[in-house]
Amino acid sequence: MSDFSNSGGWLVGSQTGLVNCVDELNSTAFIGIDFGTSTTVASLVFRDETGRGIEVRPLTLSQPSQHGGVVRDEIVNTVLAFRNETLLFGRDAYNLRSRLTEGRNSFSSFKMGLGLDLGPEFAATVLPAGRVPNITIERPADAAREFFKMLTKAINEELARLGFKGDARFAFSVPAAFQANQRRDLMAAIRGCGIEVNENCLIDEPNAAFLSYIHEVARAPDGAELLALARENKISVLVYDLGAGTCDVSLLDFSISGERVTSRNRAISKFTALGGDDIDREIARRVLVGQLRQDDGSEVELNSLDIEEKILPKLAPAAEKLKVTISKMLADKDVGHLDRARKLPDMVVETQTVAPFKMRGNVISISVPSLSLHQFLDILEPFCGERSGADDKLHLVGPVHDVLDKVSMDPDEVDAVLFIGGSAQNPLIRAAVMDAFPPVVREVVPRNLRALVSQGAAIHSLGLNGFGFDFIAPITSEAISVLTKGGAIETLIPASTPVPSEAPFVIQLSIPEGEQRQLDVPICSGARDRLVGIVTVKPIGHSGFKGGDAVTVTGHLSKEKLLEVTVEVAGQTARAEIMNPLSNAAASPSELAMLKERQKFNESMLRNNGRPSPDVVKAYSKAAANAGEHELAADLLVSLERITLGSDHATSICYHYSMAGRDKASHEWAGIAYRRRPTAVNAHNLACGERDRGIREKYLRQALEHDPEFTSSAAMLASMIEDRDPDEAQKLRQMIITVLEAGTRSSDTSMQELRRLREAARQLGKSSVAERAKSEIKRREHALAERDTVFREENLAEGRGKMIGRERLF
């Protein structure tokens, strides 16, 4: 007789022999927890009424009320709130969000901050270490730990109410593309609340949903057809999981042979921090921010820091309610496409007042938050409308194509699409996904989208803790590769590799030329710009590595998806455990440098009760500017002027707002800067923002009065007056050449000045001067590109094929 417990047959069998195999169901609670970005659900495995099968039901949990007493619900909002010296979680914590301050006494979406080491991100927290006994919330990982403490307490209380007196065994669902650093933080939070588990307790969310779906189908009256297909041939199911914070897509194969159930995860999408919260924030940003009013009815002036960090968290609950109202209306009308929805008469929905709150001494609120149908459809367009290259990062169908491309599979080879996650309740999103498939592919929408993952996690808990059986092995979402000479990529670990890897992966590279002083082995995930680490090896002695020296790179993945890399060359060995704790997405060196400064900024905020050190703010602003985040750079300097009396950063603020396209703000700060210090630079900046040509010329001439050799104003003025006064224009251009030509190679001459010199020389027909300026511009651009990398080309190994034009010779 076959052992159903080890074959997985108990998942689909009508009579599974659970009487003999799982007697401990009476004394042990097998629990699955779907820890979601916005909501969390816990489910429990029960014996069914026959005693020979199982059923899985979500637990109704008690959540503390702000007024005393409890609220009971299967859905637990993944939110914490600290009010009246009491920490709340769940429903009422969520309801208090608009009345409290995110990151201070309200904490939400902290799941998405797991795995990042950005210092104390909740720098203004009212719960720093030592403030309240046994409670610390300074980072997202702290919030996750405190949430799990309260959640497990509620679970234990519910188990006691149901009569369970034995042990509880847990399993937890995670996004399939969660990286090693994210999984490690989650495990630390789980263990931090007293739950003893190992990494096997984690199951990818799409896999958990698939387990639950198969279990339910096997017991449904109309489930025989699917099981018959699985017995005849394998079936392929694409699981589309759209939650509040992530979009996870997995492709799984499923088959039944005799009493053995086989399931294989073929591919998962790359980590995509995109979900319902992003739609909520767009509604808040594009619609509700404009509805904010002060007490006197006037509009509110806000900068980007105010909006992103303070305003949007307060408006998000109202935005979500408006979104849900319109989505339900569209579902009731059976409208599943944007084009059909646009043909409906426009309508406006409203929700409860956004409670008044203070912002720099002003009381602001929205008396009646509202959203029109057509506004909502415009906001949804980048998410589920026609795909274009510009919108692909936002488009919710992108992960579907990512998965199918990884396995070279056509859409018509998929048998069914299983939708899970609260945000998948939106019919427009489901229709956009199904449009990627032919009509023969089934659309499967479970009755309870929100509980399906937790029920699958509970089944995983039973299989793992009851039978020692891991039904579906996790896999990697992206290929792990090594960057080599000439921009080539050598795959070390292919995409869709089962985790942990059974045996190490090995590739052979070589040292291209003799006397190489250092070997850098950059490791990337999925693409060149997703650099996750570098392994560096230095030679013994001063002669360097020899040309042709063999380089052996070995890679292994742990259960936590932690990448272990070993590099051996000329008797030297270097090892590294690679994670990317500063960013869960692709990041350039300048972006990583900005994140490091943000880390210092957060730490300074916490140490100084929300008032960062001026030096730290300056460094963060500079790093933001280097990363191209000019609006953030400007906003930080505006904040610096508020916290440092007498400081003057108006000129820099004007420049950064201009670079960010904030022309109105830039011109306002140009005026402030000129009033404070009437210099050539400030007069020139003021001229740049003037539409009136006469006033613009006036300020340009004032700039040249302050500094007769100020080439920026000379170049602009020459262009303005050349038709009216060509002789003066020529004199101005000659002055530019006189001032700048001698310093062509000087580091004191900026790139902008070199471009100005080149243009002036061209206008006056001085081709040799223009050519020298052009040559220096190219030299500096190349040097800048080299400096913005974290490794140098000459330190790389050579791949197995040399690049010759577009072809590779092996």
UniProtKB/TrEMBL annotation:
Pfam families linked: HSP70
InterPro entries assigned: ATPase_NBD, HSP70_peptide-bd_sf, Hsp_70_fam
A single GO molecular function term of this UniProt record: ATP-dependent protein folding chaperone
Keyword ATP-binding among record annotations: yes
Coiled-coil parts of chain: none
Alphabetic keyword roster: ATP-binding, Nucleotide-binding
Protein name, entry field: Molecular chaperone DnaK
Lineage: Bacteria, Pseudomonadati, Pseudomonadota, Alphaproteobacteria, Rhodobacterales
